[in-house]
Structures are given as structure tokens and as C-alpha cells.
Specification:
Elements (H helix, E strand, L loop, with lengths): L3 E7 L13 H13 L5 E3 L11 H8 L7 E3 L22 H4 L11 E2 L15 E5 L2 E5 L4 E4 L4 E4 L18 H16 L4 E5 L14 H14 L4 E6 L6 E5 L2 E5 L7 E2 L12 E7 L5 E8 L9 E2 L7 E6 L3 E5 L1 E2 L17 E2 L2 E4 L3
Parallel strand pairs: 1-2, 2-3, 6-9, 9-10, 10-12
Antiparallel strand pairs: 1-17, 4-5, 5-6, 7-8, 11-12, 13-16, 14-15, 17-18, 18-21, 19-20
């Protein structure tokens, strides 16, 4: 009899109070949908928060969600930014200490990438795997870069500034690649279908890819030579875009951003002073202080960001005979303000069904 698993998925929440329009209300909407549609767990694909230390209201909501859902997450590049907003010293402390313990509310039910599979005390290993309904989920950390002077891979210390001179960046690194191949090969030998999560994509044609995407895809192909269809799907965030493809008998999915539809480094004012959003205020301990309507133009990143009206998420169902079904979502640009002509960002996660051979 065919097995299946259903889970909720979102990417790039980018929560930092007062910088973007995202508030805990948007995460509540995602979690409510997950509960209504009987998802077995919820997964975030990185860039959950730019400030874990100063965002207890969002972190606690995710990990202690009212639906009682197992919650998982992976590192994005902006997880490294949290050190610059909170109480920690970015010159002496590593962000992993403040982020890794909050990636999941089931830390004792996952197998970490440490020699004994247990959590590393300082959070310095953030990749892991877990199983649900006969499927294995491999959660990667593309926060590594190569230090040529030391001839070794290092986990990026902070987003700003990045480790000078390290190339390539946004990688798995050699040790994690070895670990991932071992985990996937074990699944192939046991006939356990797998889904791999990453922040940057391993599908290079989409851009925004991991620096060692070629090496990662070679691992997927070697594993699938042992047992075809072991790696059913590889799913990423990061790009703030909406793609799906099948290559080498693997489904690749690029999951769109929750709210920040387009970000431009050299942006320009595009919202009017009377265009508002609902701002939920919290203190540094995460206590709710109240809700008010606030002009979008008061946000520091308003000139660089085009926002969605409602949060995007999706429900994904995977069967062990190789069918991946995406139940997406669609919204509008906030206040009808669309990005400049020529940009291909869209306010949706496209629904679809994709099948491979197993």
C-alpha cells in the first residue's frame, strides 16, 4: 500500500520588528492553514528572522504553536544577522549559539550531524535529519564558506561583515556533504524515500544557488543509482521566486517568500504616505503591547521592498511512489503597488503535481 506524508512549508519570513510589514499575525495565518489541512508538521526554509535574540514573540509562536505541530527549520543567510540587533557581541560570540537551539521544537527527535547524533552544546552543527510517516527529511545548512589560507571550511560567523576572502560562500562544505551522502545512502539501502531541504537552491539554472550545488547534485545522483527515486524532492527558499522542475528524476521546488515580494538594494520610494499596514508591537521579552495602523513609509526598508498583501505558504503531499503535490497560495501586491517593469516576481506559490519514477 502506498504511503504518503503531508506537511506545511514556507520560506523567508524575514521577521525583524519594525523593518518590514511582516508580523506574528502572518505566521498565525500560516500555522492556522497547516492545522486546518492536517499537516503532519511545519517547515521553514531559512531567513525566518533577522533577529532571533530580539524576536521572542515570533520564535515562541513558531515553536510553541497553538496547533501543537512539530516545527522544523534550517539556516538562511539572514540568520547570521541576528547578532547585530540583540544583546550578543558579534565580535566574540557566534550566531549559531542563539539560532540553532530554536530551529526545531523536537530537538530530541532529530538526528543531528554530530558524531553521536545529539545536539552540539554551542549549536555549531545545525544540519540534521528526521523521519515522519516512513519518509526521511534531510535539513541542510548552507552557511559554510571555504578559507583558502587555512585550507578548511568555516561556518560563516556573521552576515555583516562576511568572512573576508572566503570563496565560495553559501555552501554545505566537505564535511556536511560527506554526512549528507551517508544519510541518503543509508536511506537508499533501507528503501526510505527522502526529501532534502536547503536555503539556496541546488538547481543552478535558477540562480541564487549554493556554491557547491554541483557536488550536492552529484550526491543525489549517486544515491539514486543505488535505488532510483530515493531522493524524491529537493526544496529551497532564498530566491523570493516561484519555480518547479524535474531533472535527473528528482523534483526541484523553489518556494516563494512569505511577504517581501521584491527587495532591491538600490530601491526608491514607491508607497504613498497614506498607505498603511497593521503593526503589532512587542517589547524585547515578547510581551504584546498593542496593534496600530502605521504608514508603510516609516519602515526603514520600505523604499527597497515591495510587499505582498497576505502571507504565502504551501501544503506539500509526497507519496512513496514518487508523486509530489503542491497546494500553493496566491495573493496581491500590498495596496496594489507592483514592482517596476521587467521584474518577474509574482505574488504566488504555484500549485501543481510532479511525478518521478521509483
Amino acid at each position: 500500500m502506498s504511503k504518503s506524508v503531508k506537511f506545511a512549508l514556507f520560506a523567508d519570513l524575514h521577521y525583524i520588528k519594525g523593518y518590514y510589514t511582516c508580523t506574528p499575525k502572518h505566521l498565525e495565518m500560516i500555522l492556522d492553514r497547516a492545522g486546518r489541512e492536517d499537516a503532519e508538521f511545519v517547515m521553514q526554509l531559512g531567513d525566518f528572522s533577522n533577529d532571533y535574540i530580539g524576536s521572542p514573540e515570533m520564535v515562541n509562536l513558531y515553536l510553541n504553536n497553538p496547533q501543537g505541530l512539530p516545527a522544523y527549520g534550517i539556516y538562511g543567510n539572514h540568520e547570521l544577522e541576528c547578532m547585530h540587533h540583540g544583546k550578543a557581541d558579534p565580535n566574540t560570540e557566534h550566531s549559531m549559539l542563539y539560532v540553532t537551539p530554536y530551529l526545531t521544537n523536537r530537538p530530541d527527535e532529530v538526528v543531528w550531524g554530530t558524531p553521536d547524533g545529539k545536539p552540539e552544546p554551542n549549536g555549531e552543527i545545525a544540519y540534521y535529519w528526521f523521519e515522519r510517516s516512513g519518509f526521511r527529511f534531510v535539513c541542510t545548512d548552507c552557511g559554510y564558506s571555504y578559507n583558502a589560507d587555512k585550507a578548511e571550511w568555516e561556518h560563516n560567523f556573521n552576515l555583516y561583515p562576511r568572512t573576508e576572502g572566503n570563496r565560495p560562500t553559501e555552501c554545505l562544505g566537505a564535511e556536511q556533504r560527506r554526512w549528507m551522502e551517508e544519510v541518503l545512502t543509508d536511506a537508499a539501502n533501507k528503501n526510505i524515500p527522502c526529501i532534502v531541504f536547503s536555503h539556496p537552491t541546488f538547481f543552478k539554472e535558477w540562480g541564487g544557488n549554493a556554491g557547491d550545488a554541483d557536488e550536492a547534485c552529484a550526491i543525489f545522483n549517486r544515491v539514486n543509482e543505488i535505488r532510483p527515486g530515493t531522493v524524491i524532492a529537493v526544496i529551497n527558499g532564498h530566491k523570493h521566486s516561484d519555480h518547479a522542475a524535474i531533472r535527473d528524476n528528482i523534483v526541484f521546488l523553489d518556494i516563494n517568500v512569505v511577504n517581501n515580494g521584491l527587495w532591491m538594494a538600490d530601491g526608491f520610494p514607491h508607497y504613498s504616505d497614506d498607505q498603511m499596514f497593521e503593526y503589532l508591537d512587542y517589547d524585547r521579552e515578547g510581551n504584546y503591547l498593542g496593534t496600530k495602523m502605521v504608514p508603510i513609509n516609516t519602515l526603514p526598508n520600505a523604499p527597497r521592498t515591495w510587499f505582498f498583501d497576505d502571507p504565502l505558504s504551501c501544503i506539500i503531499t509526497v507519496t512513496d511512489d514518487g508523486v509530489v503535490t503542491v497546494d500553493g497560495s496566491e495573493t496581491n501586491w500590498l495596496h496594489g503597488v507592483e514592482p517596476p517593469a521587467g521584474y518577474t516576481k509574482v505574488p504566488r506559490i504555484t500549485s501543481g503535481s510532479y511525478a518521478i519514477k521509483r
